[in-house]
Amino acid sequence: MAQEKKGRRQPLYKSFVHAFEGIAETIRSERNIKIHCGMALLVVIGGIILKISTAEWFTCLILFGLVISLEMVNTAVESAVDLVTEERRPLAKKAKDAAAGAVLFSAIMAAAIGCCIFIPKIIAFFQGAL
Questions:
Q1: What's the distance, CA 122 to chain centroid?
Q2: Can you give the chain as a three-state secondary structure string?
Q3: How far apart are CA 35 and CA 116, in angstroms?
Q4: pLDDT at 4 over 60
Q5: Do residues 27 and 34 make contact, with C-beta atoms less than 8 angstroms apart?
Q6: Fewest beta carbons within 10 Å, which of 27, 42, 76, 130?
Q7: 17 pLDDT band (50/70/90 cuts)?
Q8: Residue 26 contacts residue 71 (beta carbons within 8 Å)
Q9: What do you get for the CA distance between the two ends of the chain, in Å?
Q10: Do residues 86 and 25 lie in contact, with contact meaning Cβ atoms separated by under 8 Å?
Q11: With contact defined as beta carbons under 8 Å apart, do 43 and 60 qualify?
Q12: Is the CB of residue 37 less than 8 Å from the CB of residue 24?
């Protein structure tokens, strides 16, 4: 954050408070991040049931962080653009569409990697159960 009155920086813990407020507000107010969090929860449940490896857990955690972080950046871009203009402007559309596209691309890649991790385990799970 910028400096507060009298040229003094805010305490470090306040930066963390603001960051956690940003996460909480985004989850409260944005439908898509709720979907991403729900999917992450399903992956965690699936990972526990299917006993994915440590490397697979790390991969999933990195993908959760990537997709959810990009969704928060997308929300920030959309909010900043809306703050500046309510008019339909080509550059505003470009900024919003690019941010949304980044989230979509990361979510598609995460889903593809998730399929590579989980489909063989699901097949093995059901073959073992038969």
A1: 25
A2: CCCCHHHCCCCHHHHHHHHHHHHHHHHHHCHHHHHHHHHHHHHHHHHHHHCCCHHHHHHHHHHHHHHHHHHHHHHHHHHHHHHHCCCCCHHHHHHHHHHHHHHHHHHHHHHHHHHHHHHHHHHHHHHHHC
A3: 21
A4: no
A5: yes
A6: 130
A7: very high
A8: yes
A9: 58
A10: no
A11: yes
A12: no
Provide the residue type at 101 as one letter: G
Cβ atoms 92, 85 nearer than 8 A: yes
CB atoms within 10 A of CB 71: 25
Whole-angstrom distance, CA of residue 57 vs CA of residue 89: 42
Cα 83 to Cα 126: distance, rounded to the nearest angstrom: 52
- The answer, yes or no, to whether residue 6 has pLDDT greater than 80, is no
* Distances, alpha carbon 16 to alpha carbons 19, 40, 46, 65, 79, in Å: 5, 23, 31, 17, 21
Q: Tens digit of pLDDT for each residue in 18-49?
A: 999 999 999 999 999 999 999 999 999 999 99
Element (H, E) at 88: none
**What type of residue sits at position 55?**
A
Q: In the structure encoding, which two tokens stand for residue 40, read together?
A: 């992450």
What length does the chain have? 130
DSSP helix/strand/coil, 122 = helix
